[in-house]
Write a structure and sequence with these properties.
The complex is a heterodimer of chains A (117) and B (109). Chain A has strands at 4-7, 10-13, 19-25, 31-37, 43-50, 53-57, 64-70, 73-78, 87-94, 107-108, 112-116. With 117 residues, chain A is mainly beta. In chain A, strands 2, 4, 5, 6, 9, 10 and 11 form a seven-stranded mixed β-sheet that branches. In chain A, strands 1-3-8-7 form a four-stranded antiparallel β-sheet, with no helix packed on it. The N and C termini of chain B lie far apart (40 Å). In chain B, strand 6 and strand 7 (62-67) form a beta hairpin. Chain B is an all-beta fold. The mean pLDDT of chain B is 93. Chain B has strands at residues 4-7, 10-14, 19-25, 32-38, 45-51, 56-59, 62-67, 72-77, 86-93, 97-99, 103-108. Classes of the chains: A mainly beta (117), B mainly beta (109). The A-B interface holds A 40-43, 45, 48, 56, 90, 97-98, 104-106, 108-111 and B 32, 34, 38, 42-46, 49, 87, 89, 93, 95-97, 99, 101-102, 104.
Chain lengths: 117, 109
């Protein structure tokens, strides 16, 4: 009955590899997000999708490509991994962020700790 | 876009004392101000939030105050306990959430 789940929890890989992180939410939310949290704990928004449509695309290298097959899933694929990609990646979801009457709370997944060697 | 500043970056308090974390925001159109708590190795979780039509909100030992004119809001934790030790993030939003850089609170037993 986990609200927002991510797999894998830990990911250790070599520089140059390609990897994916998966996220699923069972809250019936329309909006999903990817955040990167670096060693200084700063939470930086990367992408957001609303009902499978990309709505936020911050300044992120194009090696990062999100994919939303349906509104309950938002996956993150990373090509040609670099040392600086090492971080914890959090998926989150909320109700439709464009609806001013919506409750805006974001529910976070448990995080995926990515280590690039 | 919205810019949220959070101070201090680290705060140490004796158990039982109060802790106050302050945030400022730049976009006067922001109307939603949540606070998230992140314990070590865990996910951020909402602990309290306030909307721009309210000046103060309280939930047991935590409270949030909002000054729209000055564009700042604060988190107050009273009677701090060791389990309050965590990183606290403020955020502001009209449509998308902009997070502050976080504040490490350490409660010393």
């Amino acid at each position: 009955d986990t609200a927002v789940s991510q797999t894998p929890k830990y990911l250790v890989t070599q520089m140059g590899n390609d990897k994916s992180i998966k996220c699923e939410q069972n809250l019936g939310h329309d909006t999903m997000y990817w955040y990167k949290q670096d060693s200084k704990k700063f939470l930086k928004i990367m992408f957001s999708y609303n009902n499978k449509e990309l709505i936020i695309n911050e300044t992120v290298p194009n090696r990062f490509s999100p994919k939303s097959p349906d509104k309950a899933h938002l996956n993150l694929h990373i090509n040609s991994l670099e040392l600086g990609d090492s971080a914890v990646y959090f998926c989150a979801s909320s109700q439709d962020w464009r609806d001013p009457s919506s409750y805006n709370e974001q529910f976070f997944g448990p995080g995926t700790r990515l280590t690039v060697l | 876009g919205e810019n949220v500043e959070q101070h201090p970056s680290t705060l140490s308090v004796q158990e039982g004392d109060s802790a106050v974390i302050k945030c400022t925001y730049s976009d006067s159109a922001s109307n939603y101000f949540p606070w998230y708590k992140q314990e070590l190795g865990k996910r951020p979780q909402l602990i309290i939030d306030i909307r721009s039509n309210v000046g103060e909100k309280k939930d047991q030992r935590i409270a949030v105050t909002l000054n729209k004119t000055a564009k700042h809001f604060s988190l107050h934790i009273t009677e701090t306990q060791p389990e309050d030790s965590a990183v606290y993030f403020c955020a502001a939003s009209m449509d998308r959430l902009a997070f502050g850089k976080g504040n490490q609170v350490v409660v010393i037993p």
